[in-house]
């Protein structure tokens, strides 16, 4: 060997990468360097001259024998061009340090001086680190892409070196622009900026890029694809190189147009509220949760003369109250602040002239979503005229009591079936003596009444509700003065008193002593005068009419009020009543004549000054012995102020209902016994049940069955004891069948004696909180089960299965490659052994898939899955075996088109069930598979039905979902498919029901959780 050859060999051996030289003819090995010798397993010169494929296959570098090796060498020889091949990594488990390495083969032609092909030079370059770096970069890019798709922002990545911008799909959703190369440049972004925002924004970006900041936020307007402008908040991060120069920007865009519009609308709403508050006649004010005033409308300044924007030092609203009203008003207000109950009080407020006028103050709390009071909304309504009228009426009532006590007749009211004395005028008490006391029953107060049949008469009136009148009824009375018995004669009326329900609750006894009338007409005339004086002294108008309604008598008050004269008596009704009330009066008289009962009617009477005022007319019939009406005795009472107060009360009730409808929760009230009497409209929105139906039928049937008894017990206990109600339960939304959790709280309103008058309550939706709580509990339980399965699997697969099977496979492969079998059955035995190895590998693979299912369940969340779309994807993946089996697959997902599930897991369920149907198809009939859904008690059910071989459920039903359990031996399988399906369904809170008949087919019913149950 010459010196040049020695130098070349030294240089060739010093190359760090393995090299070898091939002869073009026959591709025999001519030379190799030291690195290649090591790679070939330390071969010697004896391999020179041998075909390279033989050398590679015989040593540890067999992995370099690329499938395209011969074709690549042929192209190098024929086309004189370089070819590069990427090899698969060496098999793991070898002990030569090559396991898991990637190699790049470069085949380069070497020409002779005459231009002919002399050699083929092959370089083997270890590119493992490069490949791993590429894989890591691809994984990082895929992770970033998945994160960008999962977020609610429009994510962008601007490469400042290329000027290109990458965006996620949400950019198209928010702004309407497709993600195309034309739209992925910085110039396109600039073209979408609002002209008024672009200069300032670009100047801001220039300052950031030339500075050192790495993170910033910008706000600007951006034109959407439809031409509208979106208000955008853009947060971005600047990436800089080692010299601090920016080379890349990452950012997230949010469309805040609606948020800003809402803020502007809120400011406009507040302005409208202030205009409205200044427009209404009430004094409007607001305070915070501590009772400190935060707002007074303009009416306060107009009434008091005080500028509430700059109130006097140490000023409070109680300074404006009358001294006699300050203590009560302040105590009530402090109690409302402490309890959170509505506030209502009447007090006098001083105006700017120093005069006090009566006001009705009302305040109600405004609560936040957490139920805590955020502020109070208060009004003061001027009721001075009504209040003064009320005081006048109270004074007149006292006068009436006095007059009734002094009327020259015997007047008493007897209450209840025992005829307890509720009122008796002085004449009654004088007649019967001291033993006749208020609060006693008539029998106890004067037992002599029973012996004369008077108690039976009272019992009759109370029992029948019919008025009884007597004429010259003799009554024997013990004279209190001398103790002697004396007979008096009375004309009397026992008039039943009815309550609001229309039942008798007492009797009015009106008796007139007519003892002397039989003796002398003069005494009778005197008595008549007294009666007229009595009626004239009453505040009511007294009237007596014939049965047909013609007037026989009118008291003086009628003429004083109407200004009419006696000449107008025959047409008094036409002059005093409106046409509408005249028709009502005629109808009343016609009806009363047939019933002979007491009747009342509200009428409008024209006063002498032309004003119509509301009056209550009461007609009492005087009957003869046959029960026919002889005449009518009536009274007409001015109730104008009471009518106005009633109207005001009705308006107050309407205001309460308006406020209740404004509260963002279900507001309800109940009677002391717990019977609901009011629900706001949010009840119907939450349950889908009309308010009227709930008030009539109750609400317990909307609860989950297991919550009914406990809820009813807790509710009734609170209603009976008066304790504050605080409970949680689930209510069903009837149209969808879904249940949501609610928090119910109620406070009792009590009167001065402490008795409960009414319950006020709210029902607040807490379903999101409860679902989060339940979701955490499910996750913990699921994690425990999954970890147990995973530990068992890892132990079995790593120590007992995987390594021995790999060794067995390697030994078997080497044996079949090198050994020669003379036995004619050897080929069959080898095939059977190879089949067993594949079955074992399949089992290990299925076990790995089981672990993957557990990992996916922990790592992925449930989503809405379109069953039709997912089924098509599964069918497409097994299209070839379906076509081979000539299977007919039909679907019907009309009942439940969408379910909530982890999509890859549901795909695995469908794949396994359809694959099972293919495996176990009946050989003598065409396979039919039908997939459908139905809804059972609010839960979706997925059905997979086939007409295959079927399963003997009596024998194998209890083993259906056991690990490695198979029911047919003529088809290959591992017995893991149904076990995997069952684990997936159970881990999602569902269960599977199987119906099957041998030689007819099988139906798998997959029961799933309803929408929203996964949290």
TrEMBL record:
Catalytic activity of the protein: ATP + protein L-histidine = ADP + protein N-phospho-L-histidine
GO molecular function annotations of the record: phosphorelay sensor kinase activity
Keywords tagged on the record: Kinase, Phosphoprotein, Transferase
Phosphoprotein as UniProt keyword: yes
SMART domains listed in its UniProt record: HATPase_c, PAC, PAS
EC number: 2.7.13.3
Domain Histidine kinase: 796-1008
Domain PAC: 216-268, 343-395, 471-526, 599-651, 725-778
Annotated InterPro entries: HATPase_C_sf (IPR036890), HATPase_dom (IPR003594), His_kinase_dom (IPR005467), HisK_dim/P_dom (IPR003661), HisK_dim/P_sf (IPR036097), PAC (IPR001610), PAS (IPR000014), PAS-assoc_C (IPR000700)
Every PAS domain range: 4-79, 652-722
Pfam families the UniProt entry points to: HATPase_c, PAS_3, PAS_4
Class of the enzyme per the UniProt entry, highest EC level: transferase
PANTHER family cross-referenced by the UniProt entry: PAC DOMAIN-CONTAINING PROTEIN, PHYTOCHROME-LIKE PROTEIN CPH1
Stored NCBIfam families: sensory_box (TIGR00229)
Name of this chain's protein: histidine kinase
